[in-house]
Amino acid sequence: MKIGFASDHRGYKLKNELINKLKEDNIEVEDYGTYTEESTDYPDYAFKLGENVVAKNVDFGVAICGSGIGISIACNKVKGIRCAKVDSREDVIATRTDNDSNIIAFGEKVPFEKALEYVKAFITT
Fold first, then answer.
1. Hey, what long-range contacts does 52-55 have (CB within 8 A, 24 or more apart)?
2. How far apart are CA 45 and CA 11, in angstroms?
3. What would the pLDDT profile of 112-125 be if each residue is shown by its tens digit?
4. How do residues 23-81 score in pLDDT, each as one tens digit?
């Protein structure tokens, strides 16, 4: 299984923490940016992630911005993407089972342990 990640500058730190932990757990990941904390526009990275999920270069995607809302809207502009902004483990499970979502999104203020829980629940549901 391979998971794609994308973020804007506000989600950069959390994205990198998640990527590093998943790599430690031997989960393959692909980082579609951003690669610095310099101000950037989330749609650029949301589109890259969405296009790679649709092309099946990765199995699922995780998108992070300030609130999780903007990047989820941008991801959903890619035909074939079903991205849900999630706020709980229950949201994650529901969007996988009920909506067959292929990307989840959340905000930068989600604590690392919660974000990791969301990602793991997403890829195992």
1. 52/4, 53/4, 53/78, 53/80, 53/81, 53/102, 53/103, 54/78, 54/79, 54/80, 54/81
2. 11
3. 999 999 999 999 99
4. 999 999 999 999 999 999 999 999 999 999 999 999 999 999 999 999 999 999 999 99
* Catalytic residue numbers, as ranges: 65
Q: Which of 117, 64, 26 is nearest to 103 (CA)?
A: 64
Structure tokens at 37: 């904390």
């790599």: which residue's tokens?
23
Cis peptide before 34 (omega within 30 of 0): yes
CB neighbourhood size of 51 (10 A)? 17
Which tokens sit at 64?
Answer: 């992070």
